Each structure stands twice: as C-alpha cells, then as structure tokens.
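Researcher: Here's the sequence for the chain we discussed earlier.
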Amino acid sequence: MSSALLHSAILHSPVQTALPPQHTSASRTSLVVYAIAILLGLFSGWVNQAVGDALLTSLCVLAFTMMLGVWKSRQPWRWVLLVWVGVPLVLAYYHFIVKWPHDRGQVYGAFVQLLAASAGGFGGHFMRQMIDHVFLKKED
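Model: Thanks. This is the structure I predict for it:
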C-alpha cells in the first residue's frame, strides 16, 4: 500500500471517543459486604457500652475499618462511615430505649471514634495499594 493511501485512510477513519470505564458486576460491592460493615460497627458500639473502654472501642473500629479497607479498597470513606456510625447508634439505643444514662465524655468519645475509623479505613486502602503495587507487580 502506498504511503498516500495509508495517510488518506488514517485521516478519514472515524475518531474514537474516550468512553467512561464500565464497571462489571464483579467489581461492584455486594450488599453482604455492607451488612458485614454495619454489623461490625454495631459490635464496636456494643464493646463501647459493655466494656466502657474508649481505647478498646477505638482498636475495634480501627481494626474493622482497616480490614474492610484492605478487602474492598475502592471508596474507603464508606467503610469509615458504616463502621463508625454503629458506636453512636448503640449509645443512643442504650440511652433512649434501655434508659441507661451517659455522661458527656461518653457521648463525645463516641463521636471521636470517627478519627480511629478514618485512620483504619484510609490506612487499609493505602495498604491494599501498596500490596498491589509492590508484591503483585505485573511484568511490563
């Protein structure tokens, strides 16, 4: 083929536009994972209420969000919120339904657990990226 014909064919070929990435059903997170995150958050809230130790609750929240962040690393903020919200929800349940009084420190402590959840969720996300890039490096 001559260079003029090849050049002409290239100029008259239709331009392909960039399509947004299509997400397959395999990459989507199922409702079971969301239910697990909510149950882990409620368990963390129960630990906060039963043991009464804010540091143990922080450790639970940190470990659960880090585990979920490593397992499903896309959008780690959802694990932060789903696990963390269990602590104030259980505290509200025991305060309004069971009628166990709480002081201000316990209420503030339930909301400070958001810091531990953020560290765990985003730490797990970056840990997964490190695992993917360092240990599972594909040959170029």
